[in-house]
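Hi there. Long-time user, first ticket. I'm pasting a complex I've been working with (about 832 residues overall). I'd like to know whether the download I got is complete or cut off, because the file seemed smaller than I expected. Thanks.
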Amino acid sequence: MPASSATQIDADRLWYRLSELAEIGKSEGGGVTRLSFTKEERAAKELVASYMREAGLRVREDAAGNLIGRREARVEEAPAVLAGSHVDSVRNGGDFDGPLGVLGAVEALQTMDERGVQTQRPVEVVAFTDEEGARFSFGMIGSRATAGALTPEHLANEDENGVSVAEAMRASGLDPEHIGEATRVRGSVYAYVELHIEQGRILESRDLPVGVVTGIAGPAWLKFTLTGEAAHAGTTPMNLRRDALAAAAAVMGRIEREAARTGTSVGTAGQLDLSPGGINIIPGHVSFSLDLRDIDEDVRNDVEARIMHEAALLCEKRGVELGTKTLQRLPPAPCSSLVRNAAREACEASGLVPFELASGAGHDGMHLTELCPIGMIFVRSKDGLSHNPAEYSSKEDCAAGTEVLYRTLLELADGD
Amino acid sequence: MPASSATQIDADRLWYRLSELAEIGKSEGGGVTRLSFTKEERAAKELVASYMREAGLRVREDAAGNLIGRREARVEEAPAVLAGSHVDSVRNGGDFDGPLGVLGAVEALQTMDERGVQTQRPVEVVAFTDEEGARFSFGMIGSRATAGALTPEHLANEDENGVSVAEAMRASGLDPEHIGEATRVRGSVYAYVELHIEQGRILESRDLPVGVVTGIAGPAWLKFTLTGEAAHAGTTPMNLRRDALAAAAAVMGRIEREAARTGTSVGTAGQLDLSPGGINIIPGHVSFSLDLRDIDEDVRNDVEARIMHEAALLCEKRGVELGTKTLQRLPPAPCSSLVRNAAREACEASGLVPFELASGAGHDGMHLTELCPIGMIFVRSKDGLSHNPAEYSSKEDCAAGTEVLYRTLLELADGD
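Hi, the file is complete. Here it is re-exported in full:
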């Protein structure tokens, strides 16, 4: 499906800016490293600020270091529409994860400016501070601050050199004592919309450049511990075994089945340890991890309950003791119908299929759901890769996504 | 079922000798360590030799260090019946694995002597050198030598201090150049029978003190390697995954099912490694081991073929590449009907159920199948434990097994 037919944004300018920003923090191997509060992140923000000014935006940085470019509206006091993403990266990351959403939003607002569009509501581009969490082992610092959810404990987190978030902020010219000034009050924000690469293969598998996100899945991380009995692999008949690995294999089969049957959930055993670990010894002990996600918390909880129920039955039948422990449990963030509807209509107006999909990865919007309606637009990722120098979305796909963002913002900024 | 009613052997003497032998190489924690060609093994052989002399046997040690006590017969040139086991142990092993078969055979022959029994064929007790393989990482040295299957490569194997089998033999007063003198010619041995603890739970689960062994299972050891694709656990839908661990779990399920359906085979995945090993990363690579055994090589091969077939289908369906490698493949050793029949009749004559079961663990008899008909008698193991200080068989069960051995030897030594 050609995305160029009705394109109003400037695809060449967008692509040039993506390329220029990608040079900041780039290694010889092609990977990008821009950790928060470093000179690379600072340089990236300064470059983006220059683009913002080219787009006619009023530029400021808030108390959390979020870079904000504002386009005024017919009604100055009206709640603002926010569009953004981040410019920090993981270590040795790619060119698109974050920058596409920031530069796409700048491009959309510059297009409005060039076309003389006036909107009811102001629109702001936000480059959130430290979405990735690559420096301090927890991320989404800027969006947490915007939502008033950044705690003193968060600010005490340290990087691998023992530098805390607060110290890094101070070194960067920010005052952590004033972090509360970054918080926006409810009612001051009309909606938040983010353009981002998919980081998965759903769009690629359907041959679609763009998708509308239904929600951001919340991960529940669990640890399963199975205790059977180590015994001689030769002398213990199959029916007299308490094989912890065979039990774990059966449980993993149920995890896969229960996640798959929903059509939306994903369940993954990514880590597994066993003992004793002899080739001729039945494993007496196995532990493995489960990462379970869905954009609907009820669905996720239902899948989790089914897995727990089946695991308990399987283990009981096998005489294997089952223990489970929750390591992390984040609620999913559903995307609002306000933004989803606007984005679907924007797809159709751009000549694109208004295909909807969930986000399996976390994004800044997760922290903004209490503040305002949120939504996201995804752009096809080559081979589903991200957090990797090989991360890639084509110029055409980036332009198509930005066109959808532009039209979505028009609707959100000027709709009833 | 009372085993004592018709007992002719001396249960107290047997138990005393088991206890006395168990003191050699015993640690404070109760574990027994008697590695081959050490002073502990030497002391054990000397003690057993003294028991042999008490039993009226003619004692010698062959070129492989096998300790042999011979009871002459009416027909001196007749092929001999052999009964034996070993007195070496694993590190920190138990009191019964090996000694029961040696001391049970001594007891049986001493009983014949005391009862003035004369037999057609001579009977010899053999304490084979190094059955366990705990010192040189390969075992059954004495029985291999007896069968003419001990090679120069075997003699070059080294222990953890770099001492070879040949050097250890020399230090022990044996000449490895003359190892061939330990080999017996076909026709010179009428049968071999070994009394041993079960090392499993089958007899215990059936509340039986003694069982007749149908054969010694041969292990096939394989390594399975599954290569899928590592991907983001959040952004990759269940139907777009190539999860190597989920595939491995499915294959392990089939291994269990295919082994169990035979009723005789055992299949065990004892080792498993995966990568990358992140809690939120789909495993791209998994390798695991399979220990597959049966006493019938055709059955084992059939189970293996079914597992391979199903594994290939499962992996193909999942887009996971499957590799398999054979690490070891030993043929099973069926027990001869000659010995099995004699042992079953001996059970009945002793007032015991002539229950038959397979040996999942390896024993010296495996190497003697080319030389003569073989057979084994098992005694119930508490909790199936062996290679462990907690290894235990009761005095009554040891006596019952020895009584069966005594009657079996009478039949083999004097039957037609």
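A couple of notes from our side: Residues 11-217+332-414 of chain B form a domain with the Aminopeptidase fold (CATH 3.40.630.10). Chain B has two domains: 11-217+332-414, 219-329.
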